[in-house]
Amino acid sequence: MFLGTFSPRLDEKGRIILPAKFRDELSHGLVVTRGQERCLYVFSRDEFETIHDRIRNAPITSKLSRDYLRVFLSGAHDETPDKQHRITLPATLREYAGLDRDLVVIGAGSRAEIWNAEAWQEYLAKQEAAFSDVEEEVIPGMF
């Protein structure tokens, strides 16, 4: 499970060092793809295969399904971390997420997310107020 917030830096070759807490789960391979809210999603290879199996069941006759799959899968990039625990983020994905030198990597349960540091701070500031004001059950069975 991916938990926590980390602040790695993007090097001049477009690489980041994976947070130590995530290395075991990602050491055998991972998939990076476009996420929502202009971040990148990072899945272990096993988790991505599980997601892909579910995706395969989406109705091909649904335009919404086709559109989502095209965006999600066309950006997918598989990678195996090097001996220094670095992965390369392709230029197209860096551009999509607006990534520059300062990044934030968060754990989001079944995946990690990579954010532009400034974009993450803006998102978090907006969402923290909404989080504090929740008065009804958002996730079934929680609180």
Overall domain count: 1
How does the major sheet shape up? 6 strands, antiparallel
Helical segment count = 5
Instruction: Note the overall shape.
Output: globular
Q: How much helical structure, as a percent, in the residues?
A: 25-40%
* Protein structure class: alpha+beta
Indicate the multimeric state.
Answer: single chain
Number of strands: 8
SSE run: EEHEEHHEEHEEH
CATH class: Alpha Beta
Q: Strand order, main sheet: write it out.
A: 1-7-8-4-3-5
Cα(first) to Cα(last) distance is: 21 Å
* Mean of all residue-level pLDDT scores: 92
What is the fold named in CATH at topology level? Chemotaxis protein chec
CATH homologous superfamily descriptor: Transcriptional regulator MraZ domain
Molecular structure report:
The chain is α+β, with helices and mostly antiparallel strands and 143 residues long. The protein has a single domain, classed as 3-Layer(aba) Sandwich (Chemotaxis protein chec). 36% of the residues lie in helices and 22% in strands. The protein has five helices and eight strands. A hairpin with a 5-residue loop joins strand 3 and strand 4.
Keywords:
Chemotaxis protein chec, alpha+beta, 143 residues, 8 strands
Fold blueprint:
Elements: E1 5-6, E2 15-17, H1 23-26, E3 30-34, E4 40-44, H2 45-55, H3 63-74, E5 77-79, E6 86-88, H4 91-97, E7 103-107, E8 112-116, H5 117-133
Antiparallel strand pairs: 1-7, 2-6, 3-4, 3-5, 4-8, 7-8
